[in-house]
Design brief:
Length: 75
């Protein structure tokens, strides 16, 4: 959310995610639309979009963070 990772880094992270939970893949699909893999800008979304992501995390009782080694850690 804070323009800390690039589009290429996000792409690498998203396509390494595995889960038995369909909600996880729903998030991956949503996030995919917020970067362009032809150029490598920082990932940015409007506040309303990040609000939606946060509401979905709350609704499905999910938490995640991106670790220092650029891996998604689900909690």
């Amino acid at each position: 959310m804070n323009e800390e990772i690039t589009a290429f880094e996000l792409n690498d992270i998203l396509f390494k995610i595995t889960s038995d939970d369909d909600v996880v893949y729903y998030f991956v699909d949503l996030l995919w639309f917020y970067y362009d893999d032809c150029i490598d800008p920082k990932v940015v979304a409007e506040k309303s979009d990040w609000d939606l992501f946060n509401r979905l995390l709350l609704k499905f009782n999910c938490e995640f963070e991106i670790s220092s080694d650029k891996k998604v850690v689900w909690k």
